[in-house]
Amino acid sequence: MEHADPIIAILGIGTAVPEFRIDQADTAHRLAEALRDSPDSARWAKRIFKQCGVETRYTCEPNLLESAESCRYFPRSTSQDAPSTRDRMQTYKRESVPLSLDAAHKALLDGNIKTSDITHLFTVSCTGQFLPGLDTVLANKLGLAADVNRTPLNFLGCAAGLKAISLSRQVLLGNPSAKVLIVCVELCTLHIQPSSQREALFAASFFGDGASACIIGAPGPDHKDVFQLDNGRSVLLPDCADEMVWEVGNYGFDLYLSPNIPKLIASLIPAEVEHLLDGKPNPELWAIHPGGRGIVDSIQSLFKLTDEQTRPSRTVLRDYGNVSSATLLFVLNEMKQELKSKGSGPANGIALAFGPGLTAELIPITYLPAVISQEQLIGHVRA
Question: Is the pLDDT of residue 78 over 80?
Answer without folding.
Answer: no
